[in-house]
Amino acid sequence: MDLITPEFGLVFWTLITFLVLLFILRKFAWNPILGAVSEREEGIKDALASAEKARQEMENLQADNERILQEARAEREAMLKDARDMKAKMISDAKDEAQAQANKMIEQAQAAIDSEKKAAMAELKNHVAGLSIEIAEKVVRNELSNKDKQIKLVEDMLGETTLN
Amino acid sequence: MTLNTFRNLALTALFLSASFIGFAKESGEGEEGNKFDPKEMILHHVKDAYGMHIATLNEGKENESHITIPLPVIVYTDKGLTTFSSAAFHHDYHGHEIVERNGEKFVNVHEKVYVLDEGATEVAYDAEGHPTNAHRPTLDLSITRNVFMMWVSIALLLFIFLSAARRYKKADNYVPSGIASFVEPLIVFVRDEIAKPMIGDHKYKRYMPYLLTIFFFIWINNIFGLIPILNGANVSGNIAFTFTLAAITFIITTFSGNKHYWQHIFWMPGVPVPMKIFLMPIEIIGMFVKPISLMIRLFANITAGHVIILALMSLIFVFKTVAMAPVSVVFSLFITVIEIVVTAIQAYIFTILSALYFGMATEEAHH
């Protein structure tokens, strides 16, 4: 029976011993060790986090570089395209202008030709009219050179007039 | 190679224990006649004693001598405090040797100090072997072998953990070295596998010193109990020891109990009123059964281990033939190996259950 009866003496000494042990270990062992362990764990966690952050930053940097490169490439493309466009435009503009110039010159030439032609025609007409009058004058003069012929003419004309 | 070393050690330990039990048995034989009583031998080893008996030389001869560490007997009686060395009993625990101190006569009856009544000169026993003319002193605060071994164990614990704690220097970035790298996994184990899951991430810190201390205190005393030459220093297999630790767990649980915990005991939420009334006494009993189960579990497991090993060794003397020795040795080797595992398991169970009770006491309502 006394195997399962707690002896007061041992209870007393166990209690004292345990409390002393708990006090000393808590102050000089558990707190420093647990503190150090958790501090180290924190340190590891921080180190991992900052490594992750650095990696992220690196990635961002790389992405930035990539983006800048892309932009530069796009810009070059755009510049080249502009240049090409400008070239084409200049050529076509020049062509258009030349065409217009040519048309204008042709028109002017046409107009000049026309007016020259008209002038030539008018001169020709005048010339022809003069010639005709000269001829007519010569013919009339020739016709009316004798008296018979003049009377005959008058008579013809009178004959015609009676009809009216 | 390490396995071989380990095996050699275990075997040496077993043979030591065997030879040692031999001494014990024969001394019992010498005093009580020729009959070997395994029960008495086992109980004598499992229970506490006033002296730290290591070995007996020249058994049964004229010049018989004992190697014993004498420990102080401290008793408080009606006549005041009396202290004397346990050597004064001359290894007698049958009440024959009468020690007179402070005008009182003390005897050692089965490792319990009795004070002889006024005028008595010799202990008289009743039919069950209890002294009839002697009484226990009011207080018996003797440094018994369990107390002594407990102190040896805390000296070792303090040495291990204080020197481990010194290894943690900020300069070294808190990287453990030497003994610290051995104890740190254990400490982290208690924190991550016992305290955190049982109590919760926010509140476990308050209980860490207690949990770590009981874990290592119980474990090292369990291990000490397995060292044969220490005469079965059965500290953690003593009900007084487990009672004290369980009582501390009970006190901490009770004082850290929050509103939610007490509500669950006295007025269980979420059940009908008759059920609440029915559950109240059960919960109140449960409050006390928990630490009692802690107390009995540790005591019974460790004591049972000792009893089995001693009983197996007793077989040799019960059958009175050396042919029994191989069987006893093989079986006790087997049990001892199991006991090595049990030392850690019982410390773990005591700690995890304490943590569980603290966790239950501090759990927040989650309805």
UniProtKB/TrEMBL annotation, chain A:
Places the protein is found: Cell membrane; Endomembrane system
Main subcellular localisation: membrane
Transmembrane spans: 6-25
Coiled-coil blocks: 41-119
Membrane-protein topology: Single-pass membrane protein
Key words of the record: ATP synthesis, Cell membrane, CF(0), Coiled coil, Hydrogen ion transport, Ion transport, Membrane, Transmembrane, Transmembrane helix, Transport
Top-level division of the source organism's lineage: Bacteria
InterPro entries xref list: ATP_synth_B-like_membr_sf, ATP_synth_b/b'su_bac/chlpt, ATP_synth_F0_bsu_bac, ATP_synthase_B_chain
Pfam families named in the record: ATP-synt_B (PF00430)
Family: Belongs to the ATPase B chain family.
Subunit and partners: F-type ATPases have 2 components, F(1) - the catalytic core - and F(0) - the membrane proton channel. F(1) has five subunits: alpha(3), beta(3), gamma(1), delta(1), epsilon(1). F(0) has four main subunits: a(1), b(2) and c(10-14). The alpha and beta chains form an alternating ring which encloses part of the gamma chain. F(1) is attached to F(0) by a central stalk formed by the gamma and epsilon chains, while a peripheral stalk is formed by the delta and b chains.
PANTHER family: ATP SYNTHASE SUBUNIT B (PTHR33445:SF1), ATP SYNTHASE SUBUNIT B', CHLOROPLASTIC (PTHR33445)
Task of the protein: Component of the F(0) channel, it forms part of the peripheral stalk, linking F(1) to F(0). The b'-subunit is a diverged and duplicated form of b found in plants and photosynthetic bacteria. F(1)F(0) ATP synthase produces ATP from ADP in the presence of a proton or sodium gradient. F-type ATPases consist of two structural domains, F(1) containing the extramembraneous catalytic core and F(0) containing the membrane proton channel, linked together by a central stalk and a peripheral stalk. During catalysis, ATP synthesis in the catalytic domain of F(1) is coupled via a rotary mechanism of the central stalk subunits to proton translocation.
Descriptive protein name: ATP synthase subunit b
Taxonomic lineage from the root: Bacteria, Pseudomonadati, Bacteroidota, Flavobacteriia, Flavobacteriales
Gene this protein is translated from: atpF
UniProtKB/TrEMBL annotation, chain B:
Keyword presence, Glycoprotein: no
Stretches of the chain forming a coiled coil according to its record: none
Primary localization class, coarse: membrane
Signal peptide start and end residues: 1-24
Top-level taxon of the source organism: Bacteria
Task performed by this protein: Key component of the proton channel; it plays a direct role in the translocation of protons across the membrane.
Family in the record: Belongs to the ATPase A chain family.
HAMAP family: ATP_synth_a_bact (MF_01393)
The protein's name: ATP synthase subunit a
